[in-house]
Structure formats: C-alpha cells, structure tokens
Predict the 3D structure of the following.
Amino acid sequence: MSFPVASAHRSGEETLIARYFKPLATDPSAFDLADDAAILRAVGEDAVAATDVVVTTDAVVEGVHFLAHDPPDTIARKALRVNLSDLAAKGAAPAGFVLTLALRDAGEVWLEPFALALGEDAKAFGCPPAGKMVRRSGAKPGDRLVVTGTIGDAALGLDILKGGPLATALVDDATGKEMLIARYRVPQPRNALATAVCDHASAAMDVSDGLAGDLAKLCAASGVSAAIDLSSIPVSTTGRKLLASGAVSIEAIISGGDDYEILCAISDDCYERFAHEAMQAGIAVATIGTVIAGTASPRFIDVQGRELSLQRRSYSHF
Amino acid sequence: MSFPVASAHRSGEETLIARYFKPLATDPSAFDLADDAAILRAVGEDAVAATDVVVTTDAVVEGVHFLAHDPPDTIARKALRVNLSDLAAKGAAPAGFVLTLALRDAGEVWLEPFALALGEDAKAFGCPPAGKMVRRSGAKPGDRLVVTGTIGDAALGLDILKGGPLATALVDDATGKEMLIARYRVPQPRNALATAVCDHASAAMDVSDGLAGDLAKLCAASGVSAAIDLSSIPVSTTGRKLLASGAVSIEAIISGGDDYEILCAISDDCYERFAHEAMQAGIAVATIGTVIAGTASPRFIDVQGRELSLQRRSYSHF
C-alpha cells in the first residue's frame, strides 16, 4: 500500500496550524486550535446557553480526498459526510449546511448527480441546506434605495492590475491608482452599520457582483422594480476624473464587481434615523433611487432623463 | 475596461444555484437560496429565539477574487472582509470565523504575512477565530478507548482505486473490493451516536487521518498516553483476509486515512450505558485499549506482547 503523502507523527497540516494560525486564537473562548470543530455563540448570548452552535468546515479536495474520476454523486456524499462525522464526534446534531463549490469546469452531466446525491444525503442525515435569510426580500414601492461608500473603484483597480487601459489614463496619478488597487485588494466591509441595517432596512445585501446586477437580485427577491438616478450614484474623486475624461463609462462603474458596499431599501419613515446612525458610524450613505412596483428590470436614468441600456449587469464568477 | 467573465442579467452562478441547488432547499426554514447568508438555529432551540446565528461562506479563489501575484496579506484581509461584508448587509455582528485553506504550495514567505494580516483584521473587526471545542481534551488515565465500526477499509479502497497491489490480491473478490471502495468514497458518519458521545465520552474525535495519528492527537490534547491492544482493533472481514494473507500490514490499517469512525475515551462508570445506547443506535463499538498517564506516544501492543514500531502514524493532507 502507498499513501500520497506520509509523515512521521506530526503532519504538515498540524505543523502549519500550530505555527501560523494558533497564535491568532487569542480570544479567551478559543482554547486552542487542536480540534476539528468550533463553538460559535451568538453575540450577546448568555455564557451558559443551553445550546451551543457547533461549526465545522472540512474541505474536500480533488487528489486529496477524492480522485479526479470518482463519480460526482459519491463526491457530494463524501463532502457532506466528512463534516457530519466531525459533528457526530462532538456529540452535536446537524442543524444545516452551507456549500461552497469551486469548479474548474462542470456541466450538467456532473452537476446533476452531484446535487441529487447531496439532497438525498441531506435528507437522510436530517441536515437541510441552511434556511436562507429573507432580509433581501422586504423592499416595498416607495422605499429609498441607499448605498454606502463609493461604487466602481474595485473594478477600476482590477483593470489597472491586469494592465488595462486605465493604467495609462492614470499614469500621473499614483495616489489615485493606489487607492483603486487597494479597493480591489482590501475591501472595507461596513460592519459598523450592521445594527442600523438590522433596525431600519426593509431589504439589504452587499454589492459584490456589481451594483446593477445586485440591485436586480434584490428587486427580484422582493418582487419589485426600481428607478435609479445615475447622477446620484456615489463615485470616488478618481472615478469621477476617469468618467469625465471618457476613460471609463458609467456602465463599467455600475457593473463592476468587488465593491463590498451595502445596498439597502429603507422606507421614508425610517430614513432619518438610519442616516443619523450612519453618520455616527462614520459611514457615508447616498440615496440613489426609489423602489417602484412591477417586475421589470431596474431602470438607470441619466441627467437628461434618458434610460441607460445595459449590455451586462453583473460580474460573474462562472 | 474588461471583465474576466461577463454575462447579461443572470450570471452563470445564479443559474447554477437555481437549477441544481434550489430544489434541495426543501426544509420549511429554507425560504429560498436567493441570499448570501443563512440562519442556523441550534437544534431544539425555540423558534422565537432572541438571537439567530447567521452563517456566511464566500470562497475567495485565485484568478476570480484575487490575482496570483497579489500580496498574501491583502488576500487574507479580502477573504475575511468579503464575508464580514455579507454579515454587515444582514445586520449581523461577527461572532467568529473558521478558515479553510487549499494551497497548491505555500512556504513561510507566503504563510507568515497571510496569517499575520488575518489576525490583525480579525482583531480589528472583532471577529476572533472561533473558540475550539475542548471535548477532545478530557481523556483520563483508566478511561477505555473505544472506536466505532471498522478501521482501515477506506485506505485499502483508495489503494485499489489507484491500481495498487490490493487489486490483484482481491482479484476473485469483487464484493470485498466494492465494499472497500465504497468505504473510501462514501463514509458512514456516526451521527446516530452523537447524543451518547455527548453524554458519556470524556474525549472524542473522528478518525479521519488514521487511527494511530488521530489517537496521538487526542492523547496530546488531554495530556495523557495510551496502550492499544492491536488484536482488539475492529477490522472488516475483507481487511482480515488481506492481513492474514500478508497483502496488508497492521501498520497500513492503523495509519490509513478516511475512516470517519469515532474514537472516544469513556470512563468505566459510563461505559455500560454508552455501549447500550450504541447498540440501540445499531452502531458497533469496540474497546481497543486504555488511557494511561504520561506524555509518551500511544503504544500499540500485539498478541505476543510486543510493541509495534510505527514508521508513520497518520495520513497527511500537506
């Protein structure tokens, strides 16, 4: 018998965890990183809560945990079961799972049996795909549409990193270039606004795949449409410079990915308190349009009242 | 500007989710799969719990979310922040995170800044690595060491799949071969034993990287050693046949990976009830040895009383 990688006593995985990641576990509740599962406790929850939430995340990787030509249905079952096994060893009952798939390429012939087997095993082990949040789906006609920060910078930064035409357009603006690249590489999540979103927004999501596409998703989930005033979309100084010179189109700004700003719908009644709390949190928010009735795709209107015709609405990872 | 992949209106990712994975979300609490985060509720918890646990899992993939030559520190920050952004949009405060790393290869030059930046951001956003379970660390001298099911089958199955010598040894035993392959491809997690483990075990883990190596981890976490009776380790009929013919060594059986059985330490006082509950759950359990004081590596003793000298103790993923 042979094993792909063999080592004596302490494996490379353990050494790696001990050297690099154990030092991060400074939280009093993080006893060590010597276990396969973690306890998550909801913020504000009592220290002696009757029920802990146990979380486990075992990746199943081709060439390591399965072979390239293993049947897709057994890969699905193994992915779920190795994690169920961790829960069982911790004496925890499964409450649900989330799935992350990274595929080199995969068509129907692979995905269909994969998904079918995953569903069968999820049912067999009483472990449903976790109930999805509905907070995206409460937008009502008349609500304001609000975004945080500025839109489009990260996509411009990616263009520069890939040696696209913007590098030339910004040849004399090192600061602007660096800002755009930093926006791509190091997003600024708006966690300081979480409570205000929770308390006041009727629907919310983060803008990660482009404002236009993500707005369409939010509207679809709520069964509404939207009218957006293009001139109200917050764009950084560097972004405005590139728009003014024609180096970049507004379509590129609103369809580029990686913004990680919050898009939310807020009723007029709630808006004043929301804006106040955002100001206190030091996060800029801008009203960019209005939720309207109907199921049409959201419309983007320029200062002349013309509707923008969008070739693409979002950045796709597949 | 150019984008790696662009599509109109509905992205490939959305289509894939809608076609293959939305049909799995049949649980009443799984409203749909149209959102970026999920609510997990602890089993048995009140439906009107004051605090929901929101779970999000956004993978950050080279060539999709970052470029191959991006600095490791910004990749770490982005990996954490895109998930924090999802939480912020849901109005949820971060309680902790778990990390799954799949590396083609990575040395100190890459890992050190990656881990450092991850730790800095975790602190900055109040999002500690999740507190690790301590249930591995309560084994006491005198406790029995118990495993479920049979050990070694999956590693034998992997050898067959890779065209190793066992395929020849089992040329006339199609049923045995199929059983071993199935054990590698489709583990049988012991979730029916979770309550018994929770109620009676002083330490427990699942055996995923080989019994010998995983036992060493359990002992190290508890600050104890162990003496194992090799003849008590449960081996399948096919495994015993291969051992008897000399096609396989006991070292291969106890150092092979992918068993996904439970290994636990149980005091004599608790054992009878544990064994009874395991029987009711229809899961075979076997006592394979005893926890002893000290910090020496666990010892494996054969029927002649000789100690096995192990060249390797575990299967390593790195």
In short: The mean pLDDT of chain A is 84.
